[in-house]
Amino acid sequence: MVHIxxxxxxxxxxxxxxxxxxxxxxxxxxxxxxxxxxxxxxxxIIYDPAGGIIDFSPYVKCQAVLCLWAGxxxxxxxxxxxxxxxxxxxxxxxxxxxxxxxxxxxRHQLRMDCDILRQDGAWVHRVTPLAAERPVTxxxxxxxxxxxxxxxxxxxxxxxGWSRTLKRDRSLRLLHGEDGLNTAxxxxxxxxxxxxxxxFTRRLINASRLAYLPQGAVLLNAGRGELIDDIALIASxxxxxxxxxxxxxxxxxxxxxxxxxxxxxxxTVTPHIASxxxxxxxxxxxxxxxxxxxxxxxxxxxxxxxxxx
Length: 309
Hints:
Layout: E1 2-7, H1 10-25, E2 31-34, E3 44-47, E4 64-67, E5 85-86, H2 91-109, H3 112-116, E6 136-139, H4 143-154, E7 159-163, E8 173-176, H5 177-186, E9 190-193, H6 207-212, E10 217-221, H7 230-239, E11 242-247, H8 260-263, E12 267-269, H9 279-294
Parallel strand pairs: 1-2, 1-3, 3-4, 4-5, 6-7, 6-9, 7-8, 9-10, 10-11, 11-12
Helix pairs in contact: 1-9, 2-4
């Protein structure tokens, strides 16, 4: 018998319960999965960063902790966690990110706001550049980064991907390291942040790096709020150097109602919706990983504690 703890709150458990039970049953596992279980009996923990446990010490038999989120910055440094940790990578999560990134990239590429915000009867003819004339840089070439790069390339955008370490893909232009980052920013009219929060990436986008961007560039952040120095971003927007920032993630969430982002005319706030874990697809990933571990196969999407993701 495999005992699984769904470490979250009652509303989230209600969302996942049926999908998770069906996904686990498909592997013909002999299992129990509950919101509350005797810690000494738990074999696996499905962990929700928004409402999960903090102290893992009582779970002495736990063989793995499976996070419901792609980001694990809230748990990776937990000193009581000694079991292997996995992050969520699933088709629904990736597709949601692609749709958000493509939608907001096209919004800025086509200058949709000019028409949406100006319905005054004036016939203003304008021609926007084609996608190929608007270079895009994606910082963070994980699963979501590659998917977004592929989708935008398919629409004709000239896409450059950047990561900390060297990655190879003949279908994409990829840069890496500090020199590669500066080059990628200098060429980008649209910058998309899809990086995790790590000690290296915190405030990666600061005043000096914003200055590398061409005049009138647009910034999209769907990675982590900690990637950006908020004060430097507002200064760049106020000066007119940066044209617009569309932000889905923030250092403090929910974003306080008094935060200047809400009232800034060059900022769009979306409430952390770019990539949401959906029970129907996430449950299948969780079930497969538990099944793999029970038959002594490697866990999928294992977190490297040193890198933080």
